[in-house]
Amino acid sequence: MSINHHLVHMHPADIDIHGSSETATLGSEVVIRGSANSTSNTSPSGILRMPNELLVCIFEHGGRITLQDLGLPFAVLVSHVSRHWRALSHNTPAVWSSIPVRPAHLDLASIFLDRSNGYPLSLCLHVEKVWKVQDALALVLSSAQRWLNLYIRAGTGASVYLVITHLKRINVPRLEHFELTVRNAKPGTLGWLPPIFDPSEDDRRHHPSPKLRSVCLQGISFRFRSGLLSGLTSLTLAYLPRDMAAPMYSEFRELLRMSPNLVHLKLADVFPQVAPGVHYSEIEMRCLSTLDIVMHQSEEYVQTFFGIIAAPSLRTLKFESKWSIAWEGFESAIVSVLAVKFGQLRALHLTVSDTIHLGEYGVNVAFYDAFPELRQFSLNVLDDQLAQYFLKPWAVAMSGGEEDDFPEVAYPLVWPKLELLTVRAPYDEQEEDEDSIDDTLELIGSLRLSLGLPFDVFQACVFADFQMMEPLHN
Questions:
Q1: Which domain holds residue 461?
Q2: Alpha carbon 177 to chain centroid distance?
Q3: Is residue 353 part of a domain?
Q4: CA-CA distance, 133 to 160, in Å (whole number)?
Q5: Which burial class, exposed, middle or buried, applies to 8 when counting CB atoms under 10 A from its CB (0-12, 13-18, 19+)?
Q6: 366: phi then psi, degrees, rounded to nearest 5
Q7: Per-residue pLDDT for the chain (474 aa), expressed as one digit of tens each?
Q8: Pairing state between β 214-218 and 264-268
């Protein structure tokens, strides 16, 4: 058995921290090699022999996942690889349907709009300066009937209000996903957002509100009982401004009840106020499949929060924190809450987003026995010691032996149905510890064969500094 080592040289800015996505993982990397002027006599590579239908799918996907990047748009890159790719992309409207809109490059956005030729659109609108926004809005509002996904990246409160003022006046019948992120805004400058996509009573018959399925709000103030946040299947709320208080428990409960079919929920430092020693009724979310939590609260709070969440269909749990006391609460919750409530969990993703000390004896051994149906376990850390905290007790338990540093265990603590173990950590060429994470992973990989366990081991190393996992929106 061999471990898959992937050494990826990336700049910290290229690493995807949020995401509607997963929190603190390697970003998608697309590598294109080739030249329009290549005269090689060797046989065509596999990618050049791909059918056009498959290439178009790749082009579309690349455009979607890189839409919010600041570099050249993906469609532009692929159209300059070869004559064939250029002709194929220029004749496929879907390839140009993911449009980055930057006030400084409106000519490029205009080309995308023309080539998309009536295809449903995904737009990412970058609005940093108020005086540059008007022209961008004038360009894209004419295509509002085609909007499927709308991402807004704003740097000031004034630019946010300007965009929302225009959004109130338009009809976006196809819009399914709306995302608004504010970065670096000064505290107290945003205030409450006015209603978005909420026309007046007189205009409602002619301009109905869109049937949004997914909403992501980051770094802004909003009303928890807003109609924008109802009837969703996916909801992300992250990083409230300093001038916005955390919601009361009743507000938080009503927010989640407004979307009874919610499947995906991500909360990053947006949690209800709860009082110590007070019993709170559970908030039932029968359809919830993925819960993504970024939390920097006390040990008691972490346990209380998981205690009020009832999600019988939960299959994926993501937990991230840079506070040791929050991790203590998470470990305690494993025994008291998580093992009971989320026993059917299939995927567990943990991110330790700072170089903190979690203890000398490793994670609570109940951690490995809590989720018998687990298929995937991923661990994102900033150094080998943090990885060892979670993995070494597992390796010791699997081997059936004892080490002085670990309590005696009576049974092999492994997930019997695990299919994939993934560990991501920065590569440190200065690391010369004899007891390294590489050795531990090699041991786990060997032991899983001897025990007849089906999982594989994947180790991803990143050449990056320790700031790579810092939240972008703080």
A1: 346-403+410-468
A2: 15
A3: yes
A4: 10
A5: middle
A6: -65, -20
A7: 334 433 333 333 333 323 333 333 333 333 333 333 444 444 456 666 788 889 889 989 988 888 887 788 889 998 998 889 899 999 899 999 999 998 888 889 999 999 999 899 999 988 877 667 788 888 888 888 899 999 998 877 777 777 887 777 778 888 999 999 887 655 444 555 656 665 444 454 555 566 889 999 988 877 788 878 889 999 999 988 777 788 999 999 999 999 999 999 999 999 999 988 889 999 999 999 999 999 999 999 999 999 999 999 999 999 999 999 999 899 989 888 998 899 899 999 999 988 778 777 788 778 888 899 999 999 999 888 888 888 888 887 777 655 555 444 444 557 888 899 999 887 655 555 556 788 888 888 888 777 777 778 877 765 444 333 333 333
A8: unpaired
Cα–Cα distance, 177 to 174 (Å, whole number): 9
Which residues, in sequence order, are CB contacts of 361 under 8 Å at separation 6+? 393, 405, 406, 407
Tokens matching residue 460? 């991803």
Q: Please check whether residue 447 is in contact with residue 399, taking contact to mean a CB–CB distance below 8 angstroms.
A: yes
Q: CB-based contacts of 391: which residues, under 8 Å, 6+ apart? A: 379, 423, 437, 440, 441, 444
Q: CB 409: neighbour CB atoms within 10 A?
A: 16
Q: Crossing angle of helices 83-90/52-65, nearest 10°?
A: 70
* Domain total of the chain: 1
Is residue 449 in some structural domain? yes
Q: Are 268 and 321 in contact (CB under 8 A)?
A: no
Q: What are phi and psi of 412, to 5 degrees?
A: -75, 110
Q: How many CB atoms lie within 10 A of CB 95?
A: 26
Flag whether 111 is in a domain. Answer: no
- 389: in domain: yes
**Residue 430 tokens, joined:** 């200065």
Taking the C-alpha atoms of residue 379 and residue 423, their distance in angstroms, rounded to an integer, is: 5
